Fold these 2 entries.
Entry 1:
Amino acid sequence: MEIFNNLATGFAVALTPINLLYCFLGSFIGTTIGVLPGLGPPATIALLLPVTYGIPAASAVILLAGIFYGAMYGGSTTSILLNIPGEAASVVTCLDGYQMARQGRAGVALAISALGSFIAGTLSIVGLMLLAPPLAAFALKFGPPENFALLVLGLMMVGYLAGASMSKGLIMACVGLLLGTVGLDPIMGSQRFTYGIFKLSDGFEFILVAMGLFGIGEVLVNVEQTIKAEIFQTRVRGLLPSREEWRAAAAPIARGSLLGFFIGVLPGGGAIISSFISYALEKKLSRRPERFGKGAVEGVAAPEAANNSAATGSFIPLLTLGIPGNASIAMIFAALLIHGVRPGPLLITEKPEVFWGLIASMYLGNLMLLVLNLPLIGLWVKLLRIRYALLAPLILVFVLIGAYSVNNSIFDVGITVAFGLFGYLMRKFDFEPAPLVLAMILGPQLEASLRRSLIYSRGDLGVFFERPIAATLLALALLMLLSPLFRWVLGRKLSQTVGPVSGPGVAEDRSDVASK
Amino acid sequence: MVGRDVAVAAMVLGFGATAAYESTKLPFGTAHNPGPGFFPWWTSVVLDLLGLVLLVQALTSHSTITREGRSRVTKVALLLVVLGAYTFLLDALGYPLCAFLLVLFMLRATYPQRWAVALGMAAITAVGSYLIFAIWLGVPLPRGLLFG
């Protein structure tokens, strides 16, 4: 019964008029940027971070979370109507969604994707609500060695899962850790790598780095790769799927929700991978797999359910362990820190209004998104006519003002532009920005837990291997590190016995996503 | 594209080595009581190891990614120069003029539009954003010579 009391507390927070407004704004902005190709959730959340400084923590997180899961709804619209994914997580939806549109079933595809998203979104919030409190209670037992092991595993997973190349992912994580060391030493409080620049004494301001990498970096990348958009000339009609289409979509939605949720919980797992895996799973389970890619309802239902479910699932490591699993969640982490709320095992007990308020707002937000995305679909189709050429200058102007407004400082604008250049180069050379921002934000914690563990054990590294939880977590991290080696050895053996083989779909699919 | 990947690996190695060298200037401490230099040094070492892995991968791969057209890279470079200029001139010229010139540049050079569209958008963006942020939200954006 306690859970109902908590949920009631949550709804009391989420149903206040101002928070309802923030929830609606988040869902609305999320759908908008989901529909607009070339502007992703991390960039948008980074842009809006300064705006959230002045509002309470619960409201800030309600707004930013709404943008994140709202984008999952909006992203499918462009996939279906334009064959261009509005978000990376909607790449697979293009395969069957666009074919459905060409067959005159655009309305059905949009409806299945919105309803699938809604069902998955709602189911996964139930999962979040049930799973988070016990996990947080378990994590309360963690001392510095366990925290260190957990952070290492988290960073390893993000490096492993976030992009096509593990070595590049881990390189970005190390660069992020080093950037995180600029400023005050977390144990002794002395200055590091500031070179006499007073502005750096608190380190690189996370929000400037994020706005540069995601805001300016993305605009620069888009300047290089022109976005071509041609709206599929069709009237969106017949929104309600037939009974048969419903029957075909029901099981894939259920499976997509479940799969997406568990993949979403893994740091670095997230929406993109879950959509690919659930598509592959449905194709494998289907009695007529040849229909996939030619307008199969299942091919829209499953990945759209999975990406929504994963978006919700990725809040679990943030709210229980204090580990943001992807770039958007890292922004939300930063927003909470700015408000003096540290995400982690203590969050649920110390700030119940933030945790339960967020959960309740997610139920409401999903409902709002369903209304925004089904009856109002015509509005979003009109939005597709906005040319990126006119949008790009607005994004830049907004980033530059945002950077200035953090401390009313031109130096900060310079830092942001510099990180914009860095973000552009990273993407150009196929490095993912996500591991860098996560490592930067977790770096001080990782360093503090490492040094505290060593002080506590008097320099004995055994402390990480004698304690069962720490040892298990580190063993998992090691396994992950060695997995490319296993795959390589296995591949060689296979090719010796049965001739050349191509790897399983997921790894290849991911490289497509990374290039987006 | 092997050459490009080798160059990236070399940059990673260079960055790692510099970071390691800079870390040695900080007190390293001991294993029982690690100092401020301990963590950055070890991170730099790991970074260089990963850089070596990348180098080996670059030398042994047969990737065939085609390069983007040169004209578009030039557009990015020009835009970066303009962003740099924006930063340096923001104080002297003031926000409204800088924003106007930035948007005008983007709509003529980066994404070419007709003069009327470019001038109109630049004016609306500069004035509109100034009204919203400086007047309404109270961000003390530099006003510069024109509006000082």
Note: The mean pLDDT of chain B is 87.
Entry 2:
Amino acid sequence: MINTKNITKKFGKLTALDNVSVTFSKGECIALLGPNGCGKTTLIKALLGMVVPDSGFIYFNNELIAGKWMYRSRIGYMPQIGRYPENMTIANVIDMMKDIRKEDNEKPDEELVNAFGLKNLMQKKMRTLSGGTTQKVSAALAFMFHPDVLILDEPTAGLDPLSSEKLKQKIIKEKENGKLILITSHILSELDNLVTEVFYMQEGKLLFHKKLSALKEETGEIKLSKAIAKIMTAQEFV
Amino acid sequence: MKKILKYVIVDIAQNKIVLIYTLLLLVISLTVFNLEDNAAKGMLSLLNIVLIIVPLICIIFSTIYIYNSSEFIELLVSQPVKRRTIWLSIFSGLASSLSLAFFIGAGIPILLYHADSTGFMMIAMGLFLTIVFVSIAMLAAGLTRDKAKGIGLSILLWLYFSLIFDALVLFFLFQFQDYPLENAMVIFSFLNPIDLGRIQILLQMDISALMGYTGAVFRDFFGNSTGILLSFLGLFIWIFFPMIISMKKFGRKDL
């Protein structure tokens, strides 16, 4: 569903993405892992067209995305740090997104709005919200328009355990609906029963892209966190 | 485009500065017209307002507004919206609301007190300068990520167009005073939108005789309908050129 071919992106001297080629296919739930600053967010932003790669190609359903914009109507994106116009209330932001994105005959999916109890906070201005509440708004917006692809950048960071569990249930539900889900997270224990593939990056390079089952088999561990820890320590000695 | 523009205009309207700017212009223009019986003298005072204050407010307000919209821009860029649409909506929102402010604040008093060709030219130039300086602000804000740098750049650009450019031209004139420079002066005036505006309004005011031989050359070139058309064309280029460069820049910007 999403292919990238040799994409490279440099910020000054720093190479954030170094010749990354990947294929993400429909129905998978993929964990993007790697140490801080390894280029995960840059990769995500490149897929969304927010960052323009220096070289290489990105395809969405076999179509080049450079300069295109319609394909984004099929992506729901939850940023790591959601930034919203400060003077708008939650209701304003949600209405604006509906205005921009809503397809005519589709009912917006407000399951998360209700689950997070955002209905009672609708008249609050975005600048007065706590980090966690902002995350809830981001999550609700990402799922609202029935996207085929969900890109979640650190979705549970800053959420309380209850909300984070609700979000996880929602992710599992969408996964079962056959959607492509890309997740980055540092809380590996959360990903265990969620992901089907693991994509590991280091210093802008793709280190490996494997099925979770294959990875567990290779390392001989049952837990994803242990398997990754094994690989990371092995890396340090190389 | 229409949807995004709507949000930009609502946002600018909620931000009371444009309203205050309108009232300020209204108070100034009513004062200068009522200060003396002769409305023509009022026009002369208003000329300086149009040439100095309007560009200053437009460029500074627009630059700050664009930086403050960074969240709005970031939010929309990840949505199914063309980047060009976002940038054009912000431009149109700023240009239309500031033009409306100028028209209500200065245009209506001019029409009430001095509705002749001079008045119309002054309104036209005020509107042109408003849009030109919004466009230059888009460029200044598009060039750098740093807010302080961007606002500094806008202030410098305004200083350049309203003071430094004229000083440079004067310097040039004195250095080469042995040569006939009248035609060169016509070309120079196209390099500064404020000069274009000033020349057109002064020519309508019939005081170009005070400007000596250069004034006569200006009258010869700008005074007829071709000249007016050419200076309008020049101002249109001043609107499109910075806008197109900033749009190119924004199209490839990393957010």
Note: Residues 2-237 of chain A form a domain with the Rossmann fold fold (CATH 3.40.50.300).
